[in-house]
Amino acid sequence: MTLPYYASAEQIMRDRSELARKGIGRGRSVVVLTYDRGVLFVAENPSTALHKVSELYDRIGFAAVGKYNEFENLRRAGIMHADTRGYAYDRRDVTGRTLANAYAQTLGSIFTDQLKPYEVEICVAEVGYPDSPKPPQLYRITYDGSIGDEREFIVMGGTVEPIVTALKASYKPGLSLEDGVAIAVSALQAGVPDVAAGDKEKRTIGVSALEVAVLDQTRPRRAFKRVTGAALEALIPKAKQPPVVDAELPKTDVVDGSDDTAK
């Protein structure tokens, strides 16, 4: 009789953590930071159809790295949770902390109970209303349900350490939008791997490979706003713009609103 395979609980959790970290590490990075009017999202994302950054509710934004189908399911669940709570109570009762806690419970349960954990790391960001002195809130939720809050910036993705080092050297509170975008793009470029054997030059991050959005606290209701096309080009000094080779630039400059449609 063959004995059943045995693995300790500690070994199982370690294997699941390794699987999730490897999946997250294969993705390109996302930077979320606070600036003088709210929260700025800058992601390296050459796709124009699949978004890493989106709106969850009036004053709340979402960013993620990892497996797209998994964090897209989480995004949709967050929108439904926020809409239900806002309808049942009041729109101001929907907070970033509530959604971050819900995500932490969901990911923690999946990590513990299911055979395969979600290979995702997400950020929930919130800004107050224009008449509120409430500072922006940033929450990081990892694959195992761990949750933490940050005051200045969050970096997620494969090459985190060089990006964090670059941001620590250049970030300061109260940045303008232009400075915030420039610093974030420079930090993402610092995280690009060195030239591999056979490659002619190091990969550069062009405007068409960026996904940029903001939560603007000065906006009266829906704070989320995408920045694309000419509006994004205007934020990056011409001298610092790498050549655009990834894709054609979108024609629209700014797109407002939620991304709760199928991608």
From TrEMBL:
InterPro entries: Ntn_hydrolases_N, Proteasome_alpha, Proteasome_alpha-type, Proteasome_asu_bac, Proteasome_sua/b. SUPFAM superfamilies: N-terminal nucleophile aminohydrolases (Ntn hydrolases). Belongs to the peptidase T1A family. Pfam families: Proteasome. Keywords: Cytoplasm, Hydrolase, Proteasome. It is found in: Cytoplasm. Its main location: cytoplasm. One of its GO terms (molecular function) is threonine-type endopeptidase activity. Gene3D superfamilies: Glutamine Phosphoribosylpyrophosphate, subunit 1, domain 1. Pathway: Protein degradation; proteasomal Pup-dependent pathway. This is Proteasome subunit alpha. Signal peptide: none annotated.
